[in-house]
Amino acid sequence: MLNEVERTILQARHSSFPKGAELLHDPLLNKGTAFTEEERDALGLRGLLPPRVFTQEEQLVRILENVRRKTSPLEKYIYMTSLQDRNATLFYCALLNNLDEMMPIIYTPTVGEACQQYGHILRRPRGLYISIKDRGNVAKILKNWTYDDVRVIVVTDGERILGLGDLGAYGMGIPVGKLALYTACAGIHPAACLPITIDVGTENEALHKDPLYIGLTQRRVRGSAYDEFLEEFVEAVQTVFPKALLQFEDFGNTTAFQLLSKYRDRICTFDDDIQGTAGVTLAGVFSALQMTGGKLTDQKFVFLGAGEAGIGIADLIVSAMVETGMSLEQARQRCWFVDSKGLVVKSRTDLASHKLPYAHDHQFLPDLLSAVEAFRPNAIIGVSGTPRTFTQQVVEAMAKYNERPLIMALSNPTSKSECSAEEAYRWTQGRAIFASGSPFAPVTYNGQTFVPGQANNSYIFPGVGLGIVACEVTRVTDEMFYAAAKALTSEVSEDDLRQGRIYPSLNRIREVSAVIATAVAEVAYQRGLANYPRPVDLLGYIKAQMYEPVYQSYV
């Protein structure tokens, strides 16, 4: 029978239980050919469906046959999003039971191409679009959403989509994809999820000329007008959806740091590009240290790219070092940055404010190779969005100074990766510990097969969100991401490490997310940041809150 969440959905969308075609057009209630004989009689479905009743498992066979018949990842993406629009339960069942196959289609790397083509592949709009022309009416627009009890909002203004730059309103594919992973990986009910695009224009001239572009064809609004508009949006979210977690996603570097600084102590929010990426990277570092036997405080890191991801990762690594007793300044001295102009040092006069804490006293160096030669780091972390920048010379230098160099090529999508897994293993004679942002296939070198780690934020943000939603957490802290990183590392098995994998299998993601959610909730209860009374069995309670994509009986 219907559970409490399904009943809430019905109350929000229908004055009474829908019947006939109305029921078939509701993606959260529709079961298609799986409606039973009794349901077809009771709900006016006779004649609207083929006569044979299929089980959900039989339907899944059809779905997988169809998606595997598609000849390109983008066509598979279109097929799966169309399924999501007509039968959400079956969509999440297919996704959850085939994560290794489906995640690269639903999210990175395919979502990057989908965003670039978003207006050309649009079938049915998803989420809410709120433009600068809606100033003064944002709360009214939020109230147009179908469901009243939204618990997770992912919002972007499209200025920095993955490593692809300013895609404006085409960036909606990112919130939609992220929320699909919230449901698949952590069991947040799809009715509790809301993707939003803030449209203030775009600097992308090609989109201005694109006849099928879906957003405002104007330059971006900036300055006080932008700040006031975002303030209205945040206040409206607090009014209309007071229990919602607001996740900022793929904003420009400067904007992202400003929004996080402005709102992190006012509302329940985080920025996944800054904090989620940091959490999954720190977890990878912890796992790598299990292979090398090293101590975190002895490690030295060189970052290629000094934007949201890089600074966020460094900040969390520094926090972890400080936890062990290092001073803040000592910890920061273990992190060095190379940006598009060269080494970040104090003598430079062109540094953005977020880079200044990592601008150390040192002679200027022009590029990554010279930085690796000078500092002999234990790890290089690529978050530049610039492909092929971990060159053979760079990787070979890392292998010269480290028995097991940590090579993290984290830029997305695959076309932006700093190097491939095969290159990292070959250039280090199989000694590299490798992780990437987008997936790479296993690599066999000298008779040994290595399974590359994917530093996918989906290991972190769904579990963090689950802990926040389940326990009604009021603020999100860096300590929670530190706890999430440690929890993720605890789920890496000895077998994973033997294969060179520094993250657990994605097939265990729901189990892992529940563990992370519990660790996050523990921090919230310790700091007095949870409104829900602490359950005796916290892990058991959190698991019980997770949505399962199985059909309910309606009669």
Give a description of the structure:
- The chain is α/β, with parallel strands linked by helices.
- The protein has three domains: 4-103, Up-down Bundle (Hemocyanin, N-terminal domain), CATH 1.20.1370.30; 124-267, Malic enzyme, N-terminal domain (Rossmann fold), CATH 3.40.50.10380; 272-555, NAD(P)-binding Rossmann-like Domain (Rossmann fold, 3-Layer(aba) Sandwich).
- Helices cover 45% and strands 10% of the residues.
- It has helices spanning 4-13, 20-24, 37-42, 56-69, 73-86, 88-96, 99-106, 110-116, 118-121, 138-142, 173-186, 205-209, 223-240, 253-263, 272-292, 308-323, 328-332, 368-375, 392-401, 421-427, 461-471, 478-490, 494-498, 509-526, 538-544; strands spanning 128-131, 152-156, 193-199, 245-248, 269-271, 301-304, 335-339, 342-343, 379-382, 406-409, 433-436, 443-445, 448-450, 453-454.
- The strands form three sheets. The chain has a seven-stranded mixed sheet, sandwiched between helices. The protein has a five-stranded parallel sheet with strand order 1-3-2-4-5, with helices on both faces.
- The radius of gyration is 24 Å and the shape is globular.
Ordered list of secondary-structure elements with their pairings:
Elements: H1 4-13, H2 20-24, H3 37-42, H4 56-69, H5 73-86, H6 88-96, H7 99-106, H8 110-116, H9 118-121, E1 128-131, H10 138-142, E2 152-156, H11 173-186, E3 193-199, H12 205-209, H13 223-240, E4 245-248, H14 253-263, E5 269-271, H15 272-292, E6 301-304, H16 308-323, H17 328-332, E7 335-339, E8 342-343, H18 368-375, E9 379-382, H19 392-401, E10 406-409, H20 421-427, E11 433-436, E12 443-445, E13 448-450, E14 453-454, H21 461-471, H22 478-490, H23 494-498, H24 509-526, H25 538-544
Parallel strand pairs: 1-3, 2-3, 2-4, 4-5, 6-7, 6-9, 9-10, 10-11, 11-14
Antiparallel strand pairs: 7-8, 12-13
Helix pairs in contact: 5-6, 5-8, 6-11, 11-21, 15-16, 15-22, 18-19, 21-24, 22-24, 24-25
